[in-house]
Write a structure and sequence with these properties.
There is one protein chain. The protein is an alpha+beta fold. The chain folds into 5 domains: 62 residues, no CATH class; 172 residues, P-loop containing nucleotide triphosphate hydrolases (Rossmann fold); 98 residues, Beta Barrel (Elongation Factor Tu (Ef-tu), domain 3); 106 residues, Translation initiation factor IF- 2, domain 3 (Rossmann fold), CATH 3.40.50.10050; 99 residues, Translation factors (Elongation Factor Tu (Ef-tu), domain 3), CATH 2.40.30. Helices cover 27% and strands 36% of the residues. It has a 6-stranded mixed sheet, sandwiched between helices. Strands 13-14-19-17-16-20 form a 6-stranded antiparallel β-barrel. Strands 25-26-31-28-27-32 form a 6-stranded antiparallel beta barrel. Helix 1 crosses helix 2, helix 3 packs across helix 11 and helix 6 packs parallel to helix 7. It starts with a strand and ends with a strand.
């Protein structure tokens, strides 16, 4: 019976050998045979370990410990006696082109959607508004606009976890679509309440009753149908229903009794990070507790910063940011990962020490280095001629880098695969060009600008440098490139058959014979299968046909003819053999 070997996702070669009760030399030798150069202290993942165990014939099953997914979590309400009411954080989610950003534009009285590439939000954006109710009370609401395109699933899932309430925007003239269902699933998984905004009610083709029926079929029973899902008709174009939507958001926020401590050291979450000219690594963070001040020292995972500048969502400098407030922070030494929790510490020394500790833990978990099962499978697949497309990916924010790479990897098949040889945030530089040249990689830029000097160098060296502002255009380009690596499909077409009557001449490279066409039509040039009964003797080429004394290009059924066959080895034909004529055509395949 196979024994279970439990590991924390990664295990050193030495430890695995010990658990398998085999010598380290034997294990390293097996890895080496499969194309992996490793040392005794190098880490390999569970997939790799299982593959090698199977190759060795050892009865063992590699079991990975259950780990929590890297999704941010929030303390939505503080039970501290010093806690006060805080603004709600609202995620706006839904399908592409259903009007999420346009609805936010109307709420903010902004024109963001006009500037979005292809009309699609490309990463999580945060905004805070101040709403004046009918009785004159002013209250703040923080909105997160999440991408609608299928490639940004990871960002949308983070968006759901970052929020107190989700507004699902659905075009009433279009109904529930794939990203709508996904947004509903993310919101349910995150355990947050939902409001459905039935957008585009200004259109004649809008049908809110059909939309409610679709919602009920997706386990969201509308309130007026006896359920608990609030469905509000709105129009981002005319502004109808916007006030009612905001009032309902605030009402549901009051029911949730959202509270936070607005004093002391701040803590919160990184929403996105990017490189900004003149400022370096910059992040948009959401403060959850306490106050974040300009000059504070903050730690976010393995990155830290002294807050050099603090700006609100409009770009206006601020000195302090309280709970539920999104702000842009500069001063990071390196870019923090999006979704990472940040904390304020007393001194820069504390910040540096804490970030180094995080880096050590990250290395211990095997996130930064080590051989992966995918790498091993690719090494083993070399005999199957796996074709790889090398790419280097750069984007404006880290979340987009992750989404682009994840989307590219979905294109992988057993025959072709994307290999990301480099990635990062910000524009391309000369190092990227050098890497592209040595690895024959395509440079894919997403929402980045290219310095003229870099563009000139890329042109001089004939490098493939492609910049996109819409993610599906980038994915389509990579798909096209991968399709060119696919082996073409061979299409065979049967022509006819000849019953062999006589062999006139046989040499090492040619056979001249004759017979009767018993089926179809013979043509040259064509391929020929030589059959003796049901056994295939050879596959050769027919290069010449002769009817009587005259050379012809084709011969019809029922006619007698002579055939000249070209062969690479001597072919001994006998009377009664059958020659089956056919053609081969190569057709380029696509993914």
């Amino acid at each position: 019976m196979a024994k279970d070997i439990t590991i924390d996702g990664m295990i050193t070669v030495g430890d695995l050998a010990e658990k398998l009760d085999i010598t380290v030399t034997k294990l390293i030798g097996e890895l080496f045979k499969n194309g992996m150069m490793v040392t005794v202290n190098e880490k390999i993942d569970a997939d790799t370990a299982q593959i090698i165990v199977d190759e060795l014939g050892v009865e063992a099953k590699i079991v990975t410990k259950e780990t929590e997914p890297n999704i941010p979590t929030r303390q939505k309400s503080s039970d501290s006696p010093d806690a006060i009411s805080r603004p709600p954080v609202i995620a706006v989610m839904g399908h592409v082109d259903h009007g999420k950003t346009s609805l936010l534009d109307k709420i903010r009285d902004a024109k963001i959607a006009d500037d979005e590439s292809g009309g699609i939000t490309q990463h999580i954006s945060a905004y805070q508004i101040e709403h004046a109710s009918k009785d004159g009370e002013k209250r703040k609401i923080t909105f997160l606009d999440t991408p609608g395109h299928e490639a940004f699933a990871a960002l949308r899932e983070h968006g759901a976890y970052l929020t107190d309430l989700v507004v699902i925007v659905i075009a009433a003239d279009d109904g529930i679509k794939p990203q709508t269902k996904e947004a509903i699933r993310f919101a349910k998984k995150a355990g947050v309440k939902m409001i459905v905004a039935a957008n585009k009610m200004d259109k004649e083709t809008s049908d809110i009753n059909r939309l409610k029926q679709q919602l009920s079929e997706n386990d969201l029973m509308p309130e007026d149908w006896g359920g608990d899902t609030i469905v509000l008709p709105v129009s981002a174009k005319t502004g109808d229903g916007i006030e009612e939507l905001i009032d309902m958001i605030l009402l549901m926020a009051d029911v949730e009794n959202l509270k936070a401590v607005d004093t002391g050291e701040a803590k919160g979450l990184v929403i996105e990070s990017h490189m900004e000219q003149g400022k370096g690594p910059t992040a948009v963070v959401l403060v959850e507790q306490g106050n974040l001040h300009k000059g504070d020292f903050i730690v976010a995972g393995d990155s830290y910063a002294k807050v050099r500048t603090l700006q609100d969502t409009t770009g206006k400098p601020v000195d302090v940011a309280g709970p539920s407030t999104p702000v842009k922070v500069s001063g990071f030494k390196t870019m923090p990962e999006f979704g990472t929790q940040f904390d304020v510490v007393k001194t820069e020394k504390d910040a540096r020490k804490q970030s180094k500790s995080s880096t050590t833990e990250k290395d211990a978990r095997g996130k930064l280095s080590g051989a992966s099962g995918v790498d091993l499978l690719k090494a083993i697949s070399r005999t199957n001629k796996l074709q790889e497309l090398n790419v280097i990916v750069k984007a404006d924010v880290q979340g987009s880098v992750v989404s682009v790479i994840d989307s590219l990897k979905t294109l992988n098949t057993e025959e072709v695969a994307i290999k990301v040889v480099g990635s990062g945030v910000g524009s391309f530089n000369e190092n990227d060009l050098h890497m592209a040249q040595t690895s024959n990689a395509i440079l894919y830029g997403f929402h980045v600008s290219i310095p003229s000097s870099v563009r000139s160098l890329a042109s001089r060296d004939n490098l493939k440098l492609r910049i996109y502002d819409v993610i599906y255009e980038l994915i389509d380009d990579a798909k096209s490139e991968l399709s060119e690596l696919l082996a073409p499909e061979v299409i065979t077409t049967d022509l006819g058959r000849l019953k062999l009557k006589q062999v006139f001449k046989t040499t090492k490279s040619e056979v001249i014979c004759g017979g009767e066409v018993t089926k179809g039509k013979l043509k040259v040039p064509s391929f020929v299968k030589v059959m003796r009964g049901k056994e295939e003797l050879a596959e050769v080429e027919a290069v010449k046909l002769q009817r009587g004394p005259q050379e012809v290009k084709e011969v019809q059924e029922g006619e007698m003819c002579g055939v000249s066959l070209s062969t690479e080895t001597k072919l001994n034909l006998e009377e009664g053999d059958t020659l089956e004529f056919f053609t081969k055509e190569l057709k380029q395949r696509t993914l």
